[in-house]
Predict the 3D structure of the following.
Amino acid sequence: MKHDRRLVEVALGNRSYPIHIGRGLLQDAALIRESVPARQVMIISNETVAPLYLAALKTALGERRITAVSLPDGEQEKCLESMLPVFDEMLVNGFGRDCQVVALGGGVIGDLAGFVAATYQRGVNFVQIPTTLLAMVDSSVGGKTGVNHPRGKNMIGAFHQPRAVIADLEVLGTLPDRELRAGMAEVVKYALLGDREFLDWLDGHVDAALAREPDALAFIVERCCRNKAAIVAADEREAGQRALLNLGHTFGHAIEAARGYGDWLHGEAIAAGMCMAACLSARQGWISREERDRAVDLIGRVGLPTSPPTDLGAERFREFMARDKKNRDGELRLVLLRGLGDAVVTADYDEAALTATLEGEADD
Amino acid sequence: MKHDRRLVEVALGNRSYPIHIGRGLLQDAALIRESVPARQVMIISNETVAPLYLAALKTALGERRITAVSLPDGEQEKCLESMLPVFDEMLVNGFGRDCQVVALGGGVIGDLAGFVAATYQRGVNFVQIPTTLLAMVDSSVGGKTGVNHPRGKNMIGAFHQPRAVIADLEVLGTLPDRELRAGMAEVVKYALLGDREFLDWLDGHVDAALAREPDALAFIVERCCRNKAAIVAADEREAGQRALLNLGHTFGHAIEAARGYGDWLHGEAIAAGMCMAACLSARQGWISREERDRAVDLIGRVGLPTSPPTDLGAERFREFMARDKKNRDGELRLVLLRGLGDAVVTADYDEAALTATLEGEADD
């Protein structure tokens, strides 16, 4: 299978790292051992993924001091409290600064494990082994780690780059359909925010992706990782353009927090959020109604929500959006579209148009 | 008073920052405002320090959105749980990534506030205003932040440099005697680990320091900060020589953790730890008994413990020391003395000599 592997480099000087993409990577002992050389290894996974892939990973790692912790599945586990038993296990087992943390799971596990690695003994090495499409194309790459606070998503965390990302496309075979669609939301995001050519490709390949055709998935994961790697390399700490990756997220995070984490999946919430961004952009006259409809239709074809929950309302939305990390001096900043494939971060939008968008009002 | 100010620079490229040392700095609105330009400011202090100095700091800051949190005093507060109400307060008040955190207190407050700043929204700016001698000469400088875990000291944390350190020597006037002596432990540490000339000076000025003579305190704070700044600039993330700053700390942290945080002060525990390091070094034949006695006598003259708690025992000591962050591959590494003013990090010591030292056995 070696011929079918793809390698994307995240160029960050002495913190550069490879993203390995291919089928059967979890069985590739040489790759796993090269990526995880430490003698003490803490694997953080969840109760859904561990029964499927933990044994294979352990086999590939071979003789080591391996400790594994499996958290319950779900966004509600992504909190400070979930980190305590992991720290405890590492200390009980005498893990030193030269240990490695391995995240085996989706975005929740990757973000939490990364934050454990960022803060255990002031920082240890870690490796991401994403098992969902969403984690492969987005959350496992770029070093954003953290947990949620009841008052806002990802409010506590750190920038901490992994040593490597290993995306084994074969594990997508066991991914539930709803999770696959949620991951496609982040895929569409890359197209809308800055890759018009990819948008054209997606229009013709949504069905192939949802049918899990290997070539389509491989192309998607590589394309998204290349997009993300370029943006992260240019702006690691989000001083500027990295914020574009937040297209749909200001609205989406508010939906997630307001509904209680785990009700809407992250990808579902940002799908609705991207449609809202497209609608507000159209109301501003920055994109045409036809362009707006093209974006919304694509998201609808994936099987994702295209409008916010009807009972949320503009006031509650604003309350949660006021905590967004992009805000400066209390001013709400949004990622909007100047064109399809051309996003901007801006506070220059019409307040009444925003309110209408938050209320989910039609504008035909 | 301006003529009597001292400025030490911590040279870390684009993360370089000044340490301002002098009397009355808390009343210097220009300095405070230059160091804390943010419009949203979270001041973290404790219930002992806040009543004395919080009002002055707020006056100097002037018109801002200022929120202050006062934790109970003591090492037992330095834990993850204490951070939660701080995060909550910041989120309730809509603090963005452009806010600043100010630590107004001793080492516990500085370490915890720094870790809050390191992790709130993945990192915000912070300023250290140390109010104890220990914090001025050691913990406020260098960017080590973090909290304790029941199983070990400073086990959860991050490297996060402050924007500035403001050491107002006048606040040492209200420092309890026991705290002043504890701070002197870190002062003696710099002399023993690498500054023989300072050791000679200290021999002649211990009494002046304990009497809080302004010139002696100013000299001490500046000298220690210069020592620490040089070491941190050369080795920010403790890949090598920065570990020398841990002289006495491997033993000391074990004493603190074993006795429960807050029983022995940190400075008291590392005072005993430094005497143990000197004893083991003498047992190894690396320093003479006369040199050992000189170090132990100096620590005794400060009024600090010169031997470990008698009831701890080698076995419990080793249990806690096994979690030390300097360990590699499970091997216990210690900071010992090759000479007075010449420390090394080494795993090359005699096990029986270590056991005798842990048991507090005499060796005359």
User: Anything to note?
Assistant: Chain A has 13 helices and eleven strands. Residues 214-234 of chain A form the longest helix (21 residues). The longest strand of chain A covers residues 152-159.
